[in-house]
Amino acid sequence: MSDYAERYAASVMNTFGPPKLVLARGEGAHVWDTDGKEYVDLLGGIAVNALGHAHPAIVDAVTSQLGTLGHISNFFTSAPQVELAEKLLTLLGLEPGEGKVFFTNSGTEANEAAFKLTRRTGRTHVVVAEGSFHGRTMGALALTSKEAYRTPFEPLPGDVTFVPYGDADALAAAVTDETAAILLEPIQGEAGVVVPPEDYLAAARAVADEHGALLWLDEIQSGMGRTGAWFAHLGTGVRPDVVTVAKGLGGGFPIGACIGLGDAGTLLEPGNHGTTFGGNPVACAAALAVIRTIEDEDLLEHVTVLGQKLRDGLAVDPRVTEVRGDGLFVGLELAADVSAEVAAAALEAGFIVNNATPRRIRLAPPLVLTEDDVNAFLEAWPKILDEAMA
Ligand SMILES: *Cc1c(COP(=O)(O)O)cnc(C)c1O
């Protein structure tokens, strides 16, 4: 560990702080560090490792695609790219022709594409929620609420209004006939898994319609089965104009997508946007393998049942004042600002969790997490809290 930690400090830019572990391998929801210590990974690479680590379906898809056709540029297309675009539209409940997809390599790039798409309405104003996280590139950063992330890089692309998350009246007051889009996460991830009131997205849809603005949902963290549904917004019946996805989409292989529904799918025209790697056959094959496995192994149902068990078990301890989220997207509000201590004690005990804010713990484990993994964590949890709050 120490050897790589020192070499990391000497050779890798210090943007993330010192790494907590040097990891060597993984299998399912478990990872091992270079000392051979095993951990249950309850963060899943931040909601990325949908099928856990080293899942044979992804390994096979990636190796066989790379051995057949790895990269071709966007002068050309390939079967995996077209099949994935069609599949994503189907998962959104659309019929053929009711939407269009732009592929990227990451979440922030998916949001950049969507941000540029909103400019093609002829308007520039975007209304975004406080507590939001939409990425670190200049455009996505302009739409991200945390001032500490934004301030050092100003000026950023402007004309952005931030409103309190979950407050439909504040949204209605901020949106005008000059507004290009309302951008929301259906459940806020980086804020510590914050769930808005039930009718919030419907209210946002109504406000957007009233002013001719687009409703853009960032499902980069909440999508691809994390909540027990393909997308967190699907249960609300709200139809957005734009959906961005990434994280779990490739199950660990980098890929993102900006999906335009209806007319929003044709706002970006030839020459408006581009990417060298986005939509390459290998990434698309990985994503198709993720989706196929979630379907074949009935993982949405598994996520719903296991997520409920996990959240119920965690709610029992009075040192947790609130358990939020859906499926395997879980936020724990602690009774004190000790999330860093809790994350450290959990790591010591062999569990990877995330201290999203000083008082909130976030869990976003692989969708293939097992009941044994959940039982092990629920058994260790009170002792982790004892340790952290001692
Ligand atoms: C992680 C995340 C992003 C940014 O994705 P990157 O792949 O890190 O660029 C954007 N929006 C949401 C909601 C996210 O959780």
TrEMBL record:
Protein location: Cytoplasm
Cofactor: binding comment: Binds 1 pyridoxal phosphate per subunit.
Keyword list, A-Z: Amino-acid biosynthesis, Aminotransferase, Arginine biosynthesis, Cytoplasm, Pyridoxal phosphate, Transferase
Domain of life: Bacteria
GO molecular function: N2-acetyl-L-ornithine:2-oxoglutarate 5-aminotransferase activity
Cofactor: pyridoxal 5'-phosphate
Main location class: cytoplasm
Keyword check for Amino-acid biosynthesis: yes
Modified-residue entries (N6-(pyridoxal phosphate)lysine), positions: 247
Keyword Transmembrane set for record: no
Family the UniProt entry places it in: Belongs to the class-III pyridoxal-phosphate-dependent aminotransferase family. ArgD subfamily.
HAMAP family: ArgD_aminotrans_3
Protein name, per record: Acetylornithine aminotransferase
Organism: Nocardioides hankookensis
Name of encoding gene: argD
